[in-house]
Specification:
binds ligand LZDS7PUF, isomerase, alpha/beta, binds potassium ion, 11-stranded mixed beta sheet, 583 residues, disordered C terminus, UDP-N-acetylmuramoyl-L-alanine:D-glutamate ligase, EC 5.1.99.6, Rossmann fold
Length: 583
């Protein structure tokens, strides 16, 4: 079982927050104080010498958190300037603003004001959090352009930007950000640090999130018991969403996303025979097309498949002599040969695609899918699939599709179009849970919470996560939508997110073939499709991290042993983050 860090949608976060407040054990004001304290604490941890801070406070509770940050930095002897809005915020934010007013003034939140005065050491962005309801316009849009933009010399206007919960204006469910006013560029200046509350949200990990958030710290604000206590527990919901790489810190002692499979480094001692570790069959293409499949096959062996066989057509077989000697070779010319091969039930994982050719893939897939072996479909196999609805219908739950965006668009054009479509921000409204008409619209997820119900009046922006989940449900197989942000979704709605923005050199010819081989090897070893795809993604990126720039795909398979050793070590020693006190 792979186990990562749970990721919550903003709707789930609000439901948990509401449940906590409804319990009477914690007030909104206390949560806001804790949120502000977490941010101020992180600022002081990074920049222990008191300096100048500018805190930008928006109209809602995110702004309320900002007033707390301002007060606590002031108490720590920082020189604090607050820019705020002249509105009537909710009671908690209003109270925090009042407390700040006892200490200092509030200048208007305008671009002109932001530009004026001495430059600050730290800028705190508490303009919008989860409550953005429409694209920012007018003065607010100008401010965001200033906060997230650069000057003519390319330098960021706000060096050391700390975002409260998220960079403002950004959709935490989709990782999308609205366009800035014409002529004001795009969101291209990342925060140095983002402090999110309780759990990461999808947008922190996909889309623009990893680039815009900078370092991500997820702070404990004392909601854990409500997160875990709900009927069935969030952890047991079928549509669990997890992050599988700890590029962020979690401050409440929860497990962070280390890999998590006790079985990863161990081979079964109960069944020490090579067949106990599975047999992966990698289908290769015709003459001069076999390199990709050889990469996959070598990787399948390195990740621990007991046996791996490469299967080109007869006329390409001689090309596959040579290293590695551990690899077996077998000619498979067409569907009949493959059916014959699959009479051996010990062949328990198949890998189609890399260099296999579209027609050959179609022929072989038609023979293989009814045998219901665990199967990876990549590259040409995905193109073959997109040409033939019958093949698509023959997919089964032990299949893993590994498309990049282009392949995904060929397979699921309507979902790809939705991803490109207009992007309304999320808007949530609390409604009467007693109204059966309204209740009927709520998702089953939300109905689990014994608290105020939440209604989406506009959906959050349709994201890569939504698209991958819908694709998986539609085709009944695991869909791994590749990219620097990879989403891996299973037909039951479970999904895993992985960010690899830090290894741009992984975008190199053949890297996808290695990933396909890795997943095939893990499937051969008996990992469930979602886990095999997730672990494959994780180890793939980690091998590239270990090598650094200059990597070519041929380097990857032989880096796997070191990564496996490292993962085992991290699992035994430091898989639990240190808890920081909430004071
Ligand atoms: N997760 C937790 O447990 C806690 C979170 N906290 C913080 O609270 C925010 C969410 O607060 P909320 O008040 O719901 O939302 P925001 O602060 O992001 O903003 C809402 C206000 O912004 C106005 N708005 C929305 N869009 C625009 C726009 N484009 N232009 C101008 N104004 C906009 C909105 O006005 P409406 O007219 O739409 O109502 C609201 O006034 C969360 O992110 C955390 O930071 C708690 O402090 C602790 C617990
Ligand atoms: K913010």
């Amino acid at each position: 079982m792979l186990e990562g860090t749970e990721v919550l949608t903003t709707a789930q976060m609000r439901a948990i927050e509401s449940a906590a407040m409804a319990s009477g054990q914690v007030t909104g004001l206390e949560l806001m104080e804790r949120a502000g304290r977490a941010v101020a604490g992180q600022i002081r941890l990074r920049w222990p010498k008191a300096g100048r801070a500018t805190v930008l406070c928006g109209p809602g509770n995110n702004g309320g958190d900002g007033y707390v940050v301002a007060r606590l930095l002031h108490r720590a002897e920082w020189r604090v300037r607050v820019l705020g809005m002249d509105n009537t915020p909710g009671p908690d934010a209003g109270e925090m603003r009042r407390r700040w007013r006892e200490i200092g003034g509030i200048a208007p939140l305008t671009e002109q004001e932001l530009q004026s005065g001495t430059e600050s050491d730290v800028y705190v962005d508490a303009i919008f959090g989860t409550g953005l309801t429409r694209p920012p316009e007018g003065e607010i849009a100008n401010i965001l352009a200033r906060v997230f933009g650069r000057g003519g010399d390319g330098a960021y206007y706000c060096r050391r930007l700390v975002a409260v919960d998220c960079p403002s204006g950004f959709c935490m469910d989709s990782g999308k950000a609205p366009a800035l006013p014409p002529g004001r560029g795009t969101f291209d200046s990342p925060a140095r640090l983002t402090v999110a509350f309780d759990s990461p949200k999808p947008g922190h990990l996909i889309g623009l999130g990893p680039a815009l958030c900078g370092e991500l710290v997820v702070a404990d604000i004392g909601l854990r018991q409500w997160r875990e206590r709900h009927p069935g527990g969030l952890g047991q919901r079928p549509a669990r969403l997890e992050a599988i790489w700890p590029r962020f810190d979690i401050r409440d002692g929860r497990r962070i996303g280390v890999p998590l499979s006790d079985r990863l480094g161990k081979h079964s001692s109960a069944s020490p025979h090579k067949y106990g570790h599975g047999h992966a069959l990698i289908l290769a293409g015709g003459p001069a097309k076999g390199g990709a499949a050889r990469l996959s096959a070598r990787t399948a062996l390195r990740i621990g498949a007991g046996l791996a066989t490469i299967a080109p057509p007869q006329d390409a077989l001689p090309e596959h002599a040579g290293q590695p000697d551990a690899l077996m070779r077998r000619a498979i010319d067409g569907g009949g040969d493959l059916r014959e091969a699959l009479a051996d039930s010990r062949i328990n994982a198949l890998c189609f695609g890399p260099g296999c050719g579209i027609d050959r893939s179609a022929d072989l897939l038609a023979a293989a899918l009814p045998a219901r072996r665990a199967t990876v479909l990549d590259a040409d196999a995905l193109t073959a699939l997109s040409h033939d609805p019958a093949l698509m219908a023959a997919l089964h739950r032990d299949c893993v599709l590994t498309p990049h965006m282009g392949e995904f668009a060929r397979l699921f054009p309507d979902l790809a179009r939705q991803m490109e479509g207009p992007k309304p921000p999320a808007r949530l409204r609390h409604v009467d849970a007693g109204d059966p008409g309204r209740l009927a619209q709520f998702s089953a997820d939300m109905a689990r919470y014994n608290c105020e119900m939440i209604e989406w009046t506009q959906g959050p922006a349709y994201s890569k996560l939504d698209a991958a989940r819908e694709a998986a449900a539609r085709c009944g197989a695991v869909v791994l939508l590749k990219g620097p942000d990879t989403v891996i979704a299973a037909p039951d709605g479970s999904a895993r997110l992985h960010s690899a923005f830090d290894v741009p050199w992984l975008a190199t010819a053949g890297a996808g073939d290695v990933l396909a081989g890795m997943i095939a090897g893990l499937l051969a070893r008996g990992f469930q499709p979602l886990d095999a795809a997730s672990l494959g993604t994780l180890i793939h990126a980690q091998t590239a991290r270990g090598f650094g720039p200059g990597l070519i795909a041929d380097d990857l398979p032989d880096l796997i042993p070191a990564v496996l050793r490292g993962l085992q070590k991290s699992q035994s020693s430091s898989s639990v983050a240190t808890a920081l006190p909430m004071t």
